[in-house]
Amino acid sequence: MQLKADVLILGGGFAGMTLAVALDRYNISSIVVDTSDPIRMLEKGYDGRTTAIASSCWKLLEAIGLKESLEGKGCPIHTVRTSDQLKAPDLCFESSKDNPSGYMLENRYLRQALYEATLAAEHVTLLQPAHAVETERRHDGVSATLADGRKITASLLVGAEGRASPTRQAAGINLTGWNYNHAAVICTLFHEKPHHHIAHEIFYPKGPVALLPMQDQEGRHRSALVWTVPRQEAEAVKNLPERPFFAEVTRLTGGILGKLDFASHPTAYPLSFQFTSKMTDLRLALIADAAHGIHPIAGQGLNLGLRDVAALTEILVEGRRLGMDLGDAILLERYARWRSLDNFAIAAGTDALVRIFAVPGKVASFVRRVGFKAINNMGFIKNFFLAEARGDSGKLPRLLTGNSL
């Protein structure tokens, strides 16, 4: 059996499915090949994590038709407070209520919305679970053979399989990366006091602790906890009994949310950094974690991937309108130029933050707090950082502004 589409997307995670749904709105067909079992993937306990989605990326999701399915499920972030070990001054970024800096969304809601949109899309074929055992990129097109013998042909191959992307590896694209001596202990907490839509990030030499606001559940206040610990301590921290776990979180956060309880139990994820030498090759484009994987310190990981999606969608739609082959090197070069600098700047910035706040000692802490005070007194710098957090800086793809192409 042979299948044909304009674009072959290997990887049906958030970025891969978002790209397929976005292209569908402009009559560009795609086939998404993903190894996940859809029944298990949609189970409530499959992924209990939450994701901070920048306001520009939220506009992208709404622009491709997910507004109704995500309505009321994302918790707006109106204020971001950052401090060095709870010492004054803190760094405060405030957004207007009608233009929050972002939204906290449970991964399961986004996965369900994208899955349903993919199934409903006229020009998307979702093959799941499925696995490509062989891919070939030629000057006249790309092809893939699946494990069950089906063959797929397309004009462009998109690698969206995540950090261990076999598509990137097969293309021989070099990767720079390292493991941090950190792991993120993640869970959802019920808490006594309302969060008032404030996201807190408190930096310690061992790693930051973040409390991120979520929608109330059954009348109880909720927040997501991202507690960065030394990698060798992750299992011990994750498995702490409730009383010492909550006591330590309360100490590290200054008890700002009052009495705590588990809404979901902790899991731990090792943290690493990786960045590709290039995002494109012959009839190939890499998006999201297949091209870049960063520390979650600034909550920009998924947002970078969605910005890739918005840029690639715009370039392919414009190429189609001009009658160009969607795998044309000119289009891919434009995508690489558009996204490489932004991705590098964010990746380098987050890595620098990790290293700056990891420096121990009173002098280092004093210098950081002097920096906080200076930034608080310079509105144009605060506005720059807030624009970066929202994803509003630089030349934006139109989908990130909520507009159609």
Please characterize this protein's 3D structure.
The protein is an alpha/beta fold. It has 2 domains: 2-75 and 107-177 and 273-401, FAD/NAD(P)-binding domain (3-Layer(bba) Sandwich), CATH 3.50.50; 181-271, D-Amino Acid Oxidase, Chain A, domain 2. It contains 11 helices and 21 strands. The strands form 4 sheets. An 8-stranded mixed β-sheet has the order 7-6-15-16-17-14-18-21. A 6-stranded mixed β-sheet has the order 9-3-2-13-20-19. It has a 4-stranded mixed β-sheet with strand order 1-12-11-10, with no helix packed on it. Helix 1 packs parallel to helix 4 (107-120), helix 1 runs parallel beside helix 8 and helix 8 (301-321) packs antiparallel against helix 9. It is globular, with a radius of gyration of 21 Å. The protein starts with a strand and ends in a 15-residue tail after the last helix.
Question: What features would you highlight for this structure?
Answer:
21 strands, FAD/NAD(P)-binding domain, 36% helix, 8-stranded mixed beta sheet, alpha/beta, 405 residues, 11 helices, D-Amino Acid Oxidase, Chain A, domain 2, 2 domains
Reconstruct the topology from this structure.
Elements: E1 2-4, E2 7-10, H1 14-24, E3 30-33, H2 38-41, E4 50-54, H3 55-70, E5 75-77, E6 79-84, E7 87-94, E8 102-106, H4 107-120, E9 124-127, E10 132-138, E11 141-146, E12 151-154, E13 156-159, H5 166-170, E14 175-191, E15 198-203, E16 209-217, E17 220-230, H6 234-238, H7 242-253, E18 260-276, E19 280-281, E20 284-286, E21 292-293, H8 301-321, H9 329-357, H10 362-376, H11 379-390
Helix pairs in contact: 1-4, 1-8, 3-4, 8-9
